[in-house]
Design a protein that fits this description.
Layout: H1 3-30, H2 35-61
Helix pairs in contact: 1-2
C-alpha cells in the first residue's frame, strides 16, 4: 500500500471521528441528562480532539508523490 493511500484512509478515520463527535455532542446536549450526558460529552470531545489532530497531521504532512 502506498503512502498516499495510507494517508487517505487515515484522513477518512479523522473525518469519521469528527462526525461521531458531532452526533455524540448533539445526543448529550438534547437527549440525555445527568452523569450519562457528562460521560458522553467527554467521550465526544475526545473524539473531536483526536479527529482534529488526525486531520491536522494529514494537512501539515503535505502532498505525497
Amino acid at each position: 500500500m502506498s503512502e498516499s493511500m495510507l494517508n487517505m484512509y487515515i484522513s477518512f478515520a479523522g473525518i469519521i471521528f469528527l462526525f461521531v463527535a458531532i452526533g455524540l455532542i448533539l445526543l448529550s446536549r438534547y437527549k440525555l441528562r445527568g452523569i450519562l450526558a457528562t460521560i458522553i460529552a467527554i467521550l465526544a470531545y475526545l473524539f473531536l480532539v483526536v479527529g482534529g489532530i488526525i486531520i491536522f497531521y494529514i494537512v501539515v504532512s503535505g502532498p505525497t508523490a
